[in-house]
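in:
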């Protein structure tokens, strides 16, 4: 039986990369006082209809929604920001009157055509800075995305920024854009023709070459922006220059979610083909109020983990997990006695693998050699009778028998030997 199309098992030899990423994210984000939050995978469908927008592809085509046994409309979350906003409201996090710096990592669900870097169950790492209208907050979250990518040895990417104004400014621009595009309606690609009345800003994002040619002479969003919006954006750009973070201004960049305003940004790479965006985000000052909360500004982003892994997996300084010690037993009495040895290993914090195959000692030793362990501990009837244990140093090809009472002392060598082998392998 196969996994469902668009889903993927994350196997043990891959999990170590995910754990490394999680630990790096924790390390980077903790420095700036961001705290992890975990929200439910299941949410009310209305949450995403109200936040993401009825005119978006996500709500119209991609959500996994169903009626549960309590006749409630339920959706598997397609993105993280709406859930964080809902949690901010329902848990009254606004009562602290402090900026909430939150981050998350977890699975999201969208019904899309699976391809490299795009799954129906996928994972996002995201951050949300809630409570500050200051352009410094925009710069802070962008800087943290930059820092995480650098920490993960991801260096080949470009940051694109745009100012998309507030709702009133965008509505003014939409009217101008629709007026310009209507005479060209039949020349637009099919998706853009549909978006002309539903979500015209998304036409700017079209990958169709003919549509992009038509857009070359279209009105610019910047022409509809107020002085306040331009000043906010200019400060974000100035802070990024002060941080030596390179960026390009792309005045056709719009995000696929309705809740964004003012700053919008994407981090892209040339290493992934058509799925080139690894991080997307922006400011969403009205979302929390729109969902029934207080008027609270916010800014954040999300990184697609599967896409990021395609880029960084082979560059991360990670060795596959191997036990330091392999345990081989011979005879029923040894299988009873080995648990006392295991207690010693656990006390010394040494990783081990106990052979469970009921096979000959010779076959156990062969598996020990293949395991990557440094030491094989052998316990048989002979050893039990003499209260000893045999140590076979697998890397050196040496074997010795010692008293069990001296095992803890002998095991101190393991840490030193493992350290030296790690340095040598790197």
């Amino acid at each position: 039986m196969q996994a469902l199309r668009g889903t993927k098992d994350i196997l043990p030899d891959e999990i170590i990369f995910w754990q490394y990423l999680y630990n790096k994210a924790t390390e980077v984000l903790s420095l700036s006082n961001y705290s992890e939050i975990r929200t439910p995978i299941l949410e009310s469908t209305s949450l995403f209809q109200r936040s993401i927008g009825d005119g978006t592809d996500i709500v119209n085509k991609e959500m996994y929604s169903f009626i549960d046994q309590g006749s409630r409309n339920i959706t598997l979350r397609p993105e993280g920001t709406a859930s964080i906003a809902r949690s901010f409201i329902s848990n009254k996090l606004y009562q602290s009157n402090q900026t909430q710096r939150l981050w998350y990592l977890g699975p999201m669900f969208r019904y899309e055509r699976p391809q490299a870097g795009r799954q129906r169950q996928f994972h996002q790492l995201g951050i949300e800075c809630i409570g500050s209208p200051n352009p410094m907050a925009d710069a802070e979250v962008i800087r943290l995305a930059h820092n995480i990518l650098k920490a993960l040895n991801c260096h080949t990417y470009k940051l694109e920024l745009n100012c998309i104004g507030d709702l009133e400014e965008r509505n003014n621009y939409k009217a101008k854009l629709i007026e310009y595009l209507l005479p060209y309606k039949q020349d637009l690609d099919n998706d853009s023709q549909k978006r002309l009345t539903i979500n015209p800003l998304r036409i700017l994002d079209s990958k169709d070459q003919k549509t992009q040619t038509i857009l070359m002479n279209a009105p610019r969003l910047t022409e509809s922006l107020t002085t306040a919006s331009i000043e906010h954006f200019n400060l974000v750009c100035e802070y990024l220059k002060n941080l030596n973070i390179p960026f390009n201004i792309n005045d056709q960049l719009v995000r696929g979610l309705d809740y964004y305003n003012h700053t919008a940004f994407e981090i892209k790479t040339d290493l992934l083909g058509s799925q080139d965006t690894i991080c997307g985000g922006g400011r969403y000052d009205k979302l929390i109020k729109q969902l029934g909360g207080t008027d609270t500004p916010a800014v954040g982003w999300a990184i697609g983990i599967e896409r990021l892994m395609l880029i960084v997996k082979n560059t991360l300084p990670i060795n596959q997990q191997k036990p330091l010690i392999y345990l081989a037993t011979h005879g029923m009495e040894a299988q009873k006695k080995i648990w006392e040895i295991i207690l010693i290993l656990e006390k010394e914090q040494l990783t081990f693998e106990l052979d469970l195959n009921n096979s000959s000692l010779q076959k156990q030793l062969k598996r020990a050699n293949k395991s990557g362990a440094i030491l094989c501990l052998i316990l048989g009837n002979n050893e039990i009778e003499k209260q000893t244990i045999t140590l076979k140093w697998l890397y050196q090809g040496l074997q010795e028998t010692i008293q069990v009472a001296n095992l803890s002392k002998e095991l101190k060598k393991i840490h030193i030997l493992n350290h030296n082998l790690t340095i040598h392998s790197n």
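note: The chain has a mean pLDDT of 90.
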